[in-house]
């Protein structure tokens, strides 16, 4: 019932995350013999917090404080819903205390620097122009979009000739289509047009002509990014990033002093094991950092990446404190 209720307000990715986070709580209840929410007490909730903090459940591995915070917050939302339908006492959810994070503890410091991103794009442009890998990297970098948005693009979402009356150049449209397997994280608010460069548009055209599989998805749509079976899964885009961000993949020397003949990360299905491998989220943070360094107005970045300024500042801007101070000084009068 909780998942059905959340379906009206949240993207499928959020629902999957909630299911995963509540799995440990279900395991705890099973081990403690709790079979009815009517038997759940504040003491049980405190014991669950300790049980989870000590690494019980989910493979018996210790969890980070930020992970514990997320799981307790989801459990709190569930119990609040349960209270609304008279399944638990109204105040029970208040007995879950959410851990307080110290400054920066809940923020990942992983990113793909703008310099590395551009080097990878240059390599792909020379070695594999117009391939799926090249287009995925180009779109992630140029638009700063999330994986789901890139995966959900159709041929009909492209205006590569720049004929749209609102634009003077090529553009693509991200569209929220929850009933057809391609929702956007911010739902209808995420639907937007993004301009792309003429060079990127030309490479997309080459991809469509020479490398794109002529397939349709389960809903009769023509996806831009394809596999020979149709629209690829989101993990395909993530795996692409892990693969192309490894230095050895581009023929560079391993910065981790690994023997490439023995390194497991050289295998495609183990690419994420490379310490230099980066995710699509890291590309997004690298793009925000690039915009910040170029003093692009915050409102423009917010609209283009479809995220609040607070989220962009907290989770994506990877400029050093020194960089930010130097940039501020450019706008301040000399003392």
From TrEMBL:
Q: Where is the signal peptide?
A: none
At the top level, the lineage of the source is Archaea
Q: Name one Pfam family in it.
A: Phage_int_SAM_1
Q: Does the keyword Repeat apply?
A: no
Give me any GO biological process, just one.
Answer: DNA integration
Domain Core-binding (CB), by residue range, is 1-83
Q: Where is the Tyr recombinase domain?
A: 107-329
The entry's protein name is Site-specific integrase
What is the scientific name of the source organism?
A: Haloarcula salina
């Amino acid at each position: 019932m909780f998942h059905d209720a959340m379906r009206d307000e949240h993207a499928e990715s959020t629902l999957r995350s909630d299911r995963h986070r509540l799995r440990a709580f279900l395991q705890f209840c099973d081990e403690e013999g709790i079979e009815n929410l009517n038997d759940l007490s504040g003491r049980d909730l405190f014991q669950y917090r300790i049980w989870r903090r000590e690494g019980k459940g989910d493979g018996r591995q210790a969890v980070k404080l930020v992970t514990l915070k997320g799981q307790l917050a989801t459990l709190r939302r569930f119990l609040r819903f349960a209270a609304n339908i008279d399944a638990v006492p109204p105040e029970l959810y208040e007995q879950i205390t959410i851990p307080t994070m110290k400054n920066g503890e809940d923020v990942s410091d992983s990113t793909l620097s703008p310099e590395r991103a551009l080097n990878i794009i240059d390599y792909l442009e020379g070695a594999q122009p117009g391939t799926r890998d090249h287009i995925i990297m180009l779109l992630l970098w140029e638009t700063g979009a999330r994986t789901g948005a890139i995966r959900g693009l159709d041929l009909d979402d492209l205006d590569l000739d720049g004929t749209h009356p609102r634009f003077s150049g090529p553009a693509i449209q991200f569209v929220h289509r929850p009933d057809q397997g391609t929702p956007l994280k911010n739902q209808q608010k995420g639907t937007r047009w993004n301009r792309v460069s003429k060079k990127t548009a030309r490479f997309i055209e080459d991809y469509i002509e020479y490398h794109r599989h002529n397939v349709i998805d389960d809903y009769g749509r023509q996806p831009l990014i394809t596999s020979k079976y149709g629209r690829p899964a989101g993990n395909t885009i993530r795996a692409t990033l892990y693969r192309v961000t490894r230095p050895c993949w581009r023929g560079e020397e391993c910065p981790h002093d690994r023997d490439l003949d023995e390194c497991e990360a050289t295998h495609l299905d183990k690419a994420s094991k490379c310490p230099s491998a980066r995710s699509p989220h890291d590309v997004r943070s690298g793009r925000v950092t690039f915009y910040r360094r170029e003093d692009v107005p915050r409102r423009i970045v917010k609209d283009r990446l479809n995220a609040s300024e607070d989220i962009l500042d907290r989770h994506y801007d990877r400029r050093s404190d020194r960089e930010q101070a130097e940039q501020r000084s450019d706008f301040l009068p000399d003392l």
